[in-house]
Amino acid sequence: MSRPAKAIINLDALQHNYQLAKALSHKDGSDGKVIAVVKADAYGHGAVACAQALAYQADAFAVACIEEALELRNVGIEQPILLLEGFFEASELNDICRHKLDIVVQNNEQVSLLEQHPLSAQLTIWLKMDSGMNRVGLMPEEYRDIWMRLNALPRVGDIVLMTHLACADEAEDAGQSYTHHQLAVFEQNTLRLPGKRSIANSAGLVDYAHARADWNRPGLLLYGASPFEYEHPIEKQLQPVMELHSAIISIKDIPAGSRVGYGSQWVTQEPTRQGVIAIGYADGYPRHARNGTPILVNGKRVPIIGRVSMDMLTVDLTDIPEAKPGDPVVLWGGNLSASEVARQADTIPYQLLCNLNRVPVEYKHARSIISETV
Ligand SMILES: *Cc1c(COP(=O)(O)O)cnc(C)c1O
Description:
This protein has 11 helices and 19 strands. The protein has helices spanning 11-25, 39-44, 47-53, 66-74, 93-98, 108-116, 140-151, 172-190, 202-207, 338-344, 349-354, and strands spanning 6-10, 33-37, 60-63, 81-83, 101-105, 123-129, 156-163, 197-198, 215-216, 242-254, 259-260, 266-267, 272-277, 294-297, 300-303, 313-316, 328-332, 360-365, 368-373. The model has no long low-confidence stretch (mean pLDDT 95). The protein is α/β, with parallel strands linked by helices and 374 residues long. The longest helix has 19 residues, at 172-190. It is elongated and about 75 Å long. The site of pyridoxal-5'-phosphate has 12 residues, from loops.
């Protein structure tokens, strides 16, 4: 028998979530388009498989860098593909033109490089303003001048006006007022500039009518996880795309007072039926998952006890006496969201999904199963 850890990627769920994003972007009578963000190997779900599954639906795709874009072009993806960090050096511009990639321009160095290197084909540029995240993007004061400079270049085609929200996923007051501040800064400094606009990530698309614009850029939402750190009604409409599976590989009865795992960080208070699961941090399961983090065994929740190790973790099976070695377990997916596990590990679902590693991946699509290994 091979090691039972595996991820099952439900591509029908991905399509469902894309349609949900589409519906959100059509709210209030707007007709915004939806870029499927598939950077970082589609947040750990496999960029090629996900892009192919969305090839008939998606208005466009977005990735972080040219390597990720070429992977999609090489399997025949024809939609616009946006490089979210643009380009890092002039040598990339030829490939960018040849493969018709859209680029984000977010700093002065990129602007100068575009002025110095004549483009071999017409490019769409997404001009990013730093409206308050203070990471990348042009300062609001310089935005209009740079727009003019780029617009004067012969091979620059459409210029999409773009910004990124820092706090749209944050709870209530602080997040809301800062998001409205960013939206106002962006609006003020793009007044009367022609061109399409793009603002919203997943959280912006769900919660901020004024962030919904011509082009919306959801990532996490497509994978069926909520971007919000608190409970949010959108969760009911999302279908988790990834299910992380493994199985019980051993069961032992240990007496009260036993120290479990590395660092003996858990000590049993009572006689305990302890189970070992074949999954660990080398597979992407978070090492910092606290004691009590739930795992589904035969559909029932049991708590992790002791530290997560590289290839294994331990759970308390005392409450399910029928559990036996070989029984399947779910680490996240279905009724146990990656967001819930993330909270138990002081992290976010983004990181859990992206960190998937080593485990074989199976793709499920309209009743067919295709296997692959990451
Ligand atoms: C990654 C990314 C997104 C997607 O963000 P989610 O929170 O996953 O929806 C959108 N825009 C930009 C610029 C990004 O880098």
